[in-house]
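Example for tutorial group B:
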């Protein structure tokens, strides 16, 4: 895939065709996004510019959930993705990205990290789960 961030060619305001002055540079070439979904944890190492490595989630099982009221961080199991404002298709497929609302064992939380880039799911608790009574 050779899509680029910079729009080298395109259309004029009149609708006429613009011819690119040059081809794409190596640093302008993009790649497929890594879309983390709910499942048993799988991490992929991706080589980035400068020969660095990004640890990216393919599937995520747990999230580090911050409870601001109790001032506590807990490792909670991700149950499902409730909402994803980034993309309606992500919501349907259950993709976890920054800003996604996830259902965890601790309650409903909003993802604040970038799982496809960082390889970790950090979330802030929005609504705590009701205590189960028997």
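The residue assignment follows.
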């Amino acid at each position: 895939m050779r899509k680029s961030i910079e729009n080298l060619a395109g259309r004029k305001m009149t609708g006429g065709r613009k011819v690119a002055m040059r081809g794409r540079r190596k640093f302008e070439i993009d790649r497929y996004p890594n879309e983390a979904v709910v499942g048993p944890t799988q991490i992929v190492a991706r080589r980035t510019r400068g020969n660095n490595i990004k640890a990216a989630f393919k599937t995520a099982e747990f999230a580090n959930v911050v409870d601001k009221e109790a001032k506590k961080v807990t490792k909670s199991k991700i149950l499902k993705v409730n909402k994803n404002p980034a993309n309606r298709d992500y919501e349907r497929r259950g993709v976890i990205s920054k800003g996604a609302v996830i259902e965890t064992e601790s309650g409903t939380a909003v993802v604040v990290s970038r799982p496809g880039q960082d390889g970790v799911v950090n979330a802030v608790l929005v609504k705590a789960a009701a205590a189960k009574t028997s």
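The chain has a mean pLDDT of 88. Compare this with the pattern of hydrophobic and polar residues in the output above.
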